[in-house]
């Protein structure tokens, strides 16, 4: 803990822009090369088959080039804002700012040790059954927080990689038959943004669970372990359900929103990508 996971994320985020800067020039060179090939082929085909609209098609191609070139040149500005906007919006909706995997993991560890300081009356160390129930509940809750911290860590590292060298796939928008690679990259960014948005919502809202569980544990010290053991089942089951939601719901929501979305019909190069 102590910011260890956040430190790793910062390393990936710190390397993201230098990686993007290294592919920025080759990306533009590949784009221009592909566009010249597509332009030459389209112009030759139009000259042989449709001379009447030759200059019109030529002008449309140049307009498309100017538009795509503008997107490529301004990519360092809008790429980062595209993903950051999802997380900023989720933080604004939940009121939880500065969510981090280290903070989530630290909550799990604090809750784990809090159990042993408040359960002396409910689970004596001299009672093997009570010790087993105590360890089972504490480890299950800790495991749930570890899984949630892992997923949050994963999407943040994934976003750093997506904004780095993977931005090279924007170069393939220069040709009609390679447009599908650019479309796939943009769809991936949208999918990642939706997943970041949902996981931030779940973690931000679920942050209140820790306070509820701690108050439940504090009041449980006056209970009898054998007459009312529901706490040993209720807390672990709640933690498992919450962790399952965090691990599965972002992907499910993204699949429903981004899945039907396709830019194939909006191919600015004039033909559907094959």
Quick overview:
Helices cover about 75% and strands about 0% of the residues.
How would you characterize this protein structure?
This protein has 8 helices and no strands. The chain is elongated and about 90 Å long. It is an all-alpha fold and 274 residues long. It has one domain.
Question: What key phrases describe this protein's structure?
Answer:
8 helices, mainly alpha, 274 residues, elongated
Q: Which spans have pLDDT < 50 for at least 5 consecutive residues?
A: none
Number of strands: 0
The helix-and-strand class reads mainly alpha
Global outline? elongated
Secondary-structure blueprint of this entry?
Layout: H1 4-49, H2 54-73, H3 75-94, H4 101-118, H5 128-162, H6 179-206, H7 209-220, H8 230-258
